[in-house]
Amino acid sequence: MSAADTYLDDIRVQFRKLKTLAEDAIAQVTDDELVVSLDAESNSLAVIMKHIAGNLRSRFTDFLTSDGEKPNRNRDGEFEIAGNPGRAAIMADWESGWRRLFETLDSLSPADLLEEVRVRGEALPALAQLNRQMTHHAYHVGQIVFMAKHLRSSEWRNLSIPKKRSG
């Protein structure tokens, strides 16, 4: 197996781990907690999820052939949610973004990793854009886990090794 094949296999695994981690955290909060913000400057879980989904759809639709910032994307609108759209609607939107990512990843060949990909006019090799997206989404998944843990407090079920139990 080539280094490029290994990379493609691993990036699929790592993105799936991020998605699962976020979903395991989201599963612990109530429907009402999905739309709670800690303060006026913070985003709710639903908003972060909406942003992730919008970013994934924009970046990974026609990944190799069009700019990753699609003209029909309303990025500012991703940070607004009126009322509580409900868990089913939030999750459906979330799934659509991740589905687009995984369809694209599954279509990539090792040779594609060196193809030029543009986002907001900036050109980078596809491999670099994939790494940039991994970093971006890991940041937001960390926000989701932090927020869910805060909201659940003493009811939180650890998603990794609990404190003082690494031995």
Can you walk me through this structure?
The protein has one domain (3-155): dinb family like domain (Four Helix Bundle (Hemerythrin (Met), subunit A)), CATH 1.20.120.450. The protein has helices at residues 3-26, 45-60, 87-107, 126-152; strands at 116-119, 122-125. It starts with a helix and ends in a 15-residue tail after the last helix. It contains four helices and two strands; from the N terminus they run αααββα. It is globular. A hairpin with a 2-residue loop joins strand 1 (116-119) and strand 2 (122-125). Helix 1 runs antiparallel to helix 3 (87-107) and helix 2 runs antiparallel to helix 4 (126-152). With 167 residues, it is mainly α. A two-stranded antiparallel ribbon has the order 1-2. Helices cover 53% and strands 5% of the residues. The longest helix has 27 residues, at 126-152.
Topology:
Blueprint lengths: L2 H24 L18 H16 L26 H21 L8 E4 L2 E4 H27 L15
Antiparallel strand pairs: 1-2
Summarize the structure.
The protein is mostly helical and 167 residues long. It has helices spanning 3-26, 45-60, 87-107, 126-152, and strands spanning 116-119, 122-125.
